Amino acid sequence: MSSHSSLYNIVPGALEEGLEVFVVIFDRDWALWSQYPGLLARIHPIRIRRPKDSMAILRAFNAIEQELVIVPHGSFVRYLSGESLALLKHPIFGGVKILQYEADRNKNVGLLAAAGITTPRIFDNPDAVDCPVIVKLHGAEGGKGYFIAVNRDDLWEKGKGKQIDFIQEYISGVSIYAHYFSSPIRDRIELLGFDRRLESNANSQYLVSFEEPSFTVVGNIPIVVRESLVPEYYQMGQKFVEQTGLVGPFCIETICSSEPKIYAFEFSGRIVAGTSVWAPSGNAYTHLLWNEPMYMGKRIAREIKDAFTTNQLAKITVDSP
Ligand code: ATP
Fold it and tell me: Measured from the CA of 141, which atom of ligand 1 is nearest?
């Protein structure tokens, strides 16, 4: 399905690995995809009018006759609801269940905590707030409309008239998004890099802001983390896979505080847009693991290819938790 991750990451990776590629492309994205006629000529584009029409998306996927694996990403999860996913006739890379954790913040952060990963505190009751908090609104995507309250009174004041979904301890520090790949075929977990999001005026060039910070994502930048943090990030990924049985790409979204201490506030059980910062050449981490240009889209394609050729497709399309 058309999205930032598929155009610049998943599809180029699949083509590099010699896979046959079908892409459901929404009309609104067609002009952008048409900028790359060389890429369009190598895939099977399936045009769909509206992303909101989940039945049309389902029909398009189900009409494909070939044996295939669907690679999910952020837009895929947004436009195909839980019920629609169950009607897909083709298997999903990494399984379906883990994707359903995106809709429920409590379940999402709960799974991280269950794996023994440090997470910020959550407040069910606004009156229990005793520290600065970040308030996440119902249905917000990409940090839109969030606000920070320095204490309980500030929370009541700023929350007036808003449908507050989730109140979480605000961690002061640097946001770091860790990219992992869990490979059942090679029986290992790979740490493939880090990025951080550029979030509107929360990361504006001015130190003094006259507005409420906005976390609306406008882009991503690559990070190389300090060496002493790498083992900790690696163990975090390991613990999470041990707990969930997760297969394929995933991202643990963290804030690193001044101590430094790592707090994980969310995960995505699929490829994230931030991994595109490393396409098509890879980075220091992927180089040591692969000794060839490697990035998330290509890594996914490599696993699919290996699973197909060794008749182990069931291993990469299992349902996690
Ligand atoms: P998406 O679904 O696209 O990941 P979202 O709407 O779920 O976005 P979050 O990823 O939860 O939003 O948060 C958006 C941003 O808010 C983060 O990138 C981070 O900068 C900031 N943030 C989130 N939680 C915390 C926290 N507990 N402490 C400090 N900052 C936070």
Answer: 6
